[in-house]
Amino acid sequence: MSLAVKSLALATPPSAPEPVVRLRNYSRRFDDNLILDSLDLDIAPGEFVALLGHSGSGKTTLLRTLAGLDDVAAQDVTIPSSRAVVFQDARLLPWKRVWKNVVLGLPGRDAHARAETALAEVGLSHRIDAWPLTLSGGEAQRTALARALVRQPQLLLLDEPFAALDALTRLRMHELVLRLWYAHRPAVLIVTHDVDEALALADRALVLDKGRIIAEERITAPRGQRSAGIRELRARLLGHLGVDATAGSYADVVARASAPNYAVAAE
Amino acid sequence: MNRTLSLLRPLIRSRWLSPLLLLALWEAACRLGLIPSHLLAAPSAVLSTLVAMTVSGELPANLAVSFVRAAAGLAIGVTAGVALGLVAGLSRPGEVFVDPLMQIKRTIPVVALAPLFIVWFGIGETPKIALIAFATLFPVYLNLYNGIRSVDTRLIDAARSFGLNQRDLILHVILPGAMPSLLVGLRYALTVAIVMLVIAEQINATAGLGFLINNARDFMRTDIIVVCLMVYALLGLSADLLIRIVEARKLAWRPKLVGA
Q1: Pairwise CB contact (< 8 Å): A69 & B160
Q2: Which chain B residue is nearest to residue A92, measuring alpha carbons?
Q3: What is the count of residue pairs from A and B with beta carbons less than 8 Å apart?
Q4: pLDDT tens string A58-115
Q5: Are A95 and B176 within 8 A, CB to CB?
Q6: Are A199 and A205 contacting, i.e. CB atoms less than 8 angstroms apart?
Q7: Could you tell me the residue range of the domain that residue B189 belongs to?
């Protein structure tokens, strides 16, 4: 596939220019609960980072900070001025047609043309005048992607964007996200529960637990050639998430864990 | 025989059957003298009175007077309701200031204010319009205020993450989101306006539907009373139709209407 060929040229991780995201010793608390605990985080321009973690680990809070939705007071936080979010629920305004959702808040007369281009890129030209509530889950998420990309963000935040989609649609969306990333090269932070999603998409995976980054794994193999080293990495990431998994594919891990004599089967 | 049955079948299933039957019974009872005309005029008499009053211009002239009253009261009430709803919905200080007053106002039945309004405004047009305005204010206020406050915060977050400023947020997210509630409030207001019109027109009216009814009562002209009741009902129906048209235009994005 053309993706694999392209990825060869892009195999080296971005060298070290100014990071687009820079957090130092960043904490966030609600009342007495410490949600984020003195985090350090850098994201390089064009880097694709996956953020893994359980529910309640602080993923959403971190994403809100990076999206500029929360007041960071006087803390040491740098985020780019151009950023866009794709949420798990597409969050399209139901009273605006698809193309108006795509260019929501953008000034300029060429709005319709820009929406057209962005929707063509996600393969939704035929739905340009549709009402959002008539879209399927996959179509809504593609609209949300178009709405994010039309802003040409330096930082694209994906908040479990495909968790609510069926497996086949999710596969198509993963392909689409990678294609768009190759074409536009924003820095991406994807929040996910899904280790395989992280391994397929990202350059780097972070594991967040109780407000701290407890693990960081670089995925150095180029996209399209990841089968070889991936099982070991997968087991390590699952281990960080508290799943006692042996190295292996999803099928084997689940089957072994459920075997009656697990200890023996795991040998 | 079979043909008559097959012709009758749609009628038997139709929702018109029972009202038509009632009309027929009513007419028969009047003709047979079971219901004297000073208690209730026959449907046929009502119909001919309706035609006569329309031709003479008596009905259209008085209807126009009533219509202007209701429209003026509604215009004032809806404008004030929207303004107060926006103030309370869009700002916390506004809410703290306005909402308690509106809740106090809600506890007072508007009809009970009629004597006070007569003392203040006399027995002309002003108290009638004031009553309608005062009664229609609340449903508009309450529904708009609730509508604004129940706009999905996730949508507001999303819009803010795309850099919408406060003005655009109100214009593109909050107000359209509150529109369905506002239209519910408007529908209530229209119904309330017609009820209040009936009540207000009992205050020494010299023209209007209420005036016709009061006069007819004095002469035991039940046919005229029934004609006026029909006109009140028609006013209510057309108000409802108006809101439906607005809803079809403004809420075209809702799936039910999209599918239709």
Answers
A1: yes
A2: B155
A3: 56
A4: 888 899 889 988 887 778 888 888 889 999 888 999 999 999 999 998 887 888 899 9
A5: yes
A6: yes
A7: 46-259
